[in-house]
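During the second year of the project, the team shifted from modelling isolated chains to modelling whole assemblies. The rationale, set out in the original proposal, was that interfaces cannot be judged from single-chain predictions alone. As a representative example for this report, we include one of the complexes processed in the last quarter. Its constituent sequences, exactly as entered into the pipeline, are reproduced here:
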Amino acid sequence: MTDHNWMVVEEGFDPERVAHFETVFTQGNGFLGTRGSFEEYYPGKHNSTFAHGVFDDVPIFFKELANLPDWTELFVDLDGETFSLVSGELLGYRRCLSLRDGLLVRELRWKSPQGKISSLVFSRFISRANERLCLQKVEITPENYAGKLLVRAGLDGGASNLDLKHWDWLNQRQQAKTFTLELKTKGSGIKLEMSQILCCSDKNAAHSYWNTFNHPTQAIEKVLKEHEKFTVWKAVEIKVAPFEQESPAGKPINLDEVQWDAQLAAHRKLWQEDWQRSDIIIEGDDETQLAMRASIYHLLIAGPRHSERVNIGAKTLSGQGYRGHTFWDTEIFMLPFFTYTNPQIARNLLSYRYHNLPGALEKASKNGFEGAQYPWESAADGREVTPVWVPYHKDPSQMVRIWCGDVEIHISSDIAYAVLQYWKATGDERFMVDRGAEIVLQTARFWASRLEWNSQTQQYEINNVIGPDENHDRIDNNAYTNYMVRWHLRTAVGIFAWLKTQHPAEFKSLAERLSLSDEQVAEWADKAEKIFLAFDEKTGLIEQFDGYFNLKTLDMRDFAGRTDSIQSILGVEEAAQTQTLKQPDVLMLMYLHPELFDPEIQKINFDYYTPRTDLEYGSSLGPSIQAIMAARLGEMQNAYENFVRAAQADLKDVRGNARDGIHGASAGGLWQAAVFGFAGLKIGEQAWSIDPKLPQGWKRLAFKFWYHGKEESIDIRAEGKR
Ligand code: IFM
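Output from the structure prediction step:
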């Protein structure tokens, strides 16, 4: 293991890639996430810090994570000239994120407009050891001059998301060497306290405090000799009222006593433990090794360790894309990583769904159904927050109708599926009895009321939905949805019976509380067997939805050289008239339920749907699933090609939208592609097995995972030895 496989490096400064690197260099600790923005002013920089659960009201998107004041602000005045990347001349520039410990370091040499050369090294980390603590340091050396140095660092209460300000000022105060700013979100009323201390390497340096309204600032001043290195560092404590009690790692801090070295050592120890459990070693392919670790790193900094009331947004805590909302991306794409490496985080994520059952019950009831219908997009309280109309990205004067919140309903089964997967992998019976069963039963109840009886065919249908492939909306009998619902209802019937026999006391109280009877559940069993399931006996094909086979086939080779999705090139309406998929749909179903389809049937459908799927520029969720299916079927070239696509989603910014935040689902999907695709890990109720198929050139694939409370180790060598 060499360190270049642990370092994401920006060699040389490229103004065009500022926003991209801000995302890639995001740091965090499972509670806070801060983008890799520069400490000093830079035009158009999108510095943001988000904390899980800190949502506020916003037009169109209902709720969004509120951008916290920037704890990284730091201005350096060098003998009267302010350091900035927009003036003077850069003589050297290198920025590195160490994935081992999340330390971000920027080293540069800068020649000021007046010709004074300085070396500057900025370092920072968000503590893993204390969720409230952030630390930052700058080392400054004048190389060809002597003069006055002034470092200014403040907390700006005027922080905003794009153009919307979420914070009201409450108070600010100074105590000894620290100052504190108190704020409250305008709509949700969440209180925030940020405190800061600024220290330096010379006791005789002059300190001052500027009590500027809503932007208190500390400064340190010193006259430096030529070649004299001077270090300034600061510690910031971030307290968010609703989450303080829940967080054992968020111990109160005495900022006066915080020491950089001691904090870094404690932080590194926990990171080491994280990697011990979570690393995937790939030998023989450095580029994907680094991408794999970068994906794991981004999952680790996003996973809530100490709260079961929050969840991970589609863009983690690394950007404003999707406003911090949670989708099925969590349960189907990211959760398996946590289930198998950090089951406590997986439990927290699923518990968020449990605590938010009231929102799902409300949604079902508003729509005229029974039980619990989970929202397509969810924020703090689990109510639907999918926007209904959004400005069209190519022409913001036009509005586009988003139907996902109305009819992308497969998410209720995706969550139930994740609950069952978690149980199977961990054996956490307590979770199942206390929380999981209720999620599965209440969502099953929703489906039982949502099914539509077709008296002609004598079958139940599910009409007017959106499947995983969002290129086609408001379609009937999406195969993914229908098969998932049959599985869901059957599973709920099994859970009901299991609870009744294995945990009679809990069963009794749950059945009473939910008013759930044997008759009702028997009806679910009956309905499950009468759901329409597409399958053509002659061809072995599953039609993605009613009428899909009649749509126009598009030859994607005709669009060679494109840099955008087919949907974006053709427009929403026209793309919907073609068979082009945004992401795997029938293949997604086969990935989740391989037991339902013989390998020949999987292959027939793989061959049919692969050329119709926009894996290059469609959804970032597609390539990893495609890679797993291809690996399972021995289509190794296709598997590797799509694995690389997923690996590059953020590091290479293949879709040009990494500026909006990390593609969390792609990161989780990449982990699954290595584990369930190339290693071929299969999890049973009592045992697990592997069926390795390594891509060409890979010499080794090794990782650990947790199964029923015990850590297991896999080490696959190219020659096939374990
Ligand atoms: O959940 C996904 C969806 O499957 C495709 N569009 C983006 C969403 C958020 O990542």
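The CA atoms of residues 78 and 149 lie 5 Å apart. The mean pLDDT is 96.
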